[in-house]
From TrEMBL:
<keyword id="KW-0808">Transferase</keyword>
<dbReference type="Pfam" id="PF03737">
    <property type="entry name" value="RraA-like"/>
</dbReference>
<keyword id="KW-0460">Magnesium</keyword>
<dbReference type="InterPro" id="IPR036704">
    <property type="entry name" value="RraA/RraA-like_sf"/>
</dbReference>
<keyword id="KW-0489">Methyltransferase</keyword>
<feature type="binding site">
    <location>
        <position position="122"/>
    </location>
    <ligand>
        <name>Mg(2+)</name>
    </ligand>
</feature>
<dbReference type="GO" id="GO:0008168">
    <property type="term" value="F:methyltransferase activity"/>
</dbReference>
<protein>
    <recommendedName>
        <fullName>Putative 4-hydroxy-4-methyl-2-oxoglutarate aldolase</fullName>
    </recommendedName>
</protein>
<keyword id="KW-0479">Metal-binding</keyword>
<dbReference type="GO" id="GO:0046872">
    <property type="term" value="F:metal ion binding"/>
</dbReference>
<dbReference type="InterPro" id="IPR005493">
    <property type="entry name" value="RraA/RraA-like"/>
</dbReference>
<feature type="binding site">
    <location>
        <begin position="99"/>
        <end position="102"/>
    </location>
    <ligand>
        <name>substrate</name>
    </ligand>
</feature>
<feature type="binding site">
    <location>
        <position position="121"/>
    </location>
    <ligand>
        <name>substrate</name>
    </ligand>
</feature>
<dbReference type="GO" id="GO:0032259">
    <property type="term" value="P:methylation"/>
</dbReference>
Length: 230
């Protein structure tokens, strides 16, 4: 099997039953329940205008050669309704991996969304599109279509590890990755955290938010507080 130039047709689907539950949660809340470590780089941002702000689905992963979208095209033909295609692009920012035509095709096929660690083009049309497309940059330069690359292998996107079948959750804040094997535990923690978060929001609106933890933390960290000028 030629590593670096292969396509796996199967992936882990054990987390499929948790997708709809995660769809009801803000990405920030879930991220807080994962030691605040699952968020893709803020460089990868929402480029489109979806009516439903939340994107959630199982990852189809693409490992692309810098500036090449051959494997992305194949992944779009493979992905099922509700899937999220996640693309690693070796950090390249010089060649757009897709534009308005490919985005329209993905939307027509029912693919939940795309997350690209690379640029797109045709931003005038995509920025108005009712779809979930996250990308790292914009450039008019087009892609190569030669390969090599891989589909449904572990990748790194936005400095975060993504395995095929992981849950990808995105909203206006950005995108996080929920490992498929941890989905049940993370969901339970995030649902409980959301209740606390919503209560704190109401307390903040009333000016009643408890703030004593700040001084307690400073004291535990042995921060010196000086009643004077520097």
């Amino acid at each position: 099997m030629p590593a670096g130039n292969r396509i796996f047709l199967q992936r882990n689907l054990e987390a499929a039953g948790y997708v709809e539950a995660f769809r009801t949660l803000p990405a920030a809340v879930v991220a807080d329940c994962m030691s605040r470590l699952p968020a893709l780089s803020g460089e990868i941002r929402l480029m489109s205008a979806p009516r439903n702000a939340v994107m959630c689905g199982l990852a189809v992963t693409v490992k692309a050669r810098s500036g090449d979208n051959l494997m992305l095209h194949k992944a779009m033909d493979m992905a099922g309704k509700g899937d999220v295609i996640v693309v690693s692009n070796e950090g390249d920012r010089s060649q757009a991996l897709m534009g308005e035509v490919m985005t329209t095709w993905a939307r027509q096929r029912g693919i939940e969304g795309l997350v690209l660690d690379g640029p797109i083009r045709d931003i005038e049309g995509i920025s108005k599109m009712d779809y979930h497309l996250y990308a790292a940059a914009i450039t008019p330069g087009g892609p190569y279509k030669d390969g090599p690359g891989e589909i449904n292998v572990p990748i790194a996107c936005g400095n975060i590890h993504v395995s095929p079948g992981d849950i990808i959750l995105g909203d206006h804040d950005g995108v996080i990755v929920i490992p498929h094997g941890d989905a049940a535990q993370i969901l339970e923690a995030a649902q409980a955290y959301l209740i606390v978060d919503e209560r704190n929001f109401e307390l903040a609106k009333r000016g009643e938010l408890e703030r004593g933890w700040i001084d307690e933390t400073l004291k535990s960290k042995q921060v010196e507080i000086i009643d004077g000028r520097f």
